[in-house]
């Protein structure tokens, strides 16, 4: 059974990659949304460059909210 690259290596959800759906890569969400470098660093080396991550995991961490004035 061929390994599917349609799932996110980080969370296992569908990565919604346009190429997996048979669409041009230019239609992929990753062309318009920045991918967090921290998320890419968590990818297993054997899947890096093969499997896309999903939009949720690619989203940068929310800004720290600890510095709110009290
Ligand atoms: Zn994910």
Automatic annotation (TrEMBL):
InterPro entries: Cys_rich_CWC. It holds the Pfam family Cys_rich_CWC. This is Cysteine-rich CWC family protein.
């Amino acid at each position: 059974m061929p390994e599917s690259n349609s799932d996110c290596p980080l969370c296992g959800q569908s990565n919604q990659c346009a190429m997996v759906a048979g669409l041009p890569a230019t239609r992929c969400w990753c062309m318009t949304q920045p991918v967090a470098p921290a998320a890419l660093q968590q990818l297993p080396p054997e899947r890096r460059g093969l499997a896309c991550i999903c939009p949720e995991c690619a989203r940068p961490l929310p800004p720290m909210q600890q510095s709110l004035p009290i």
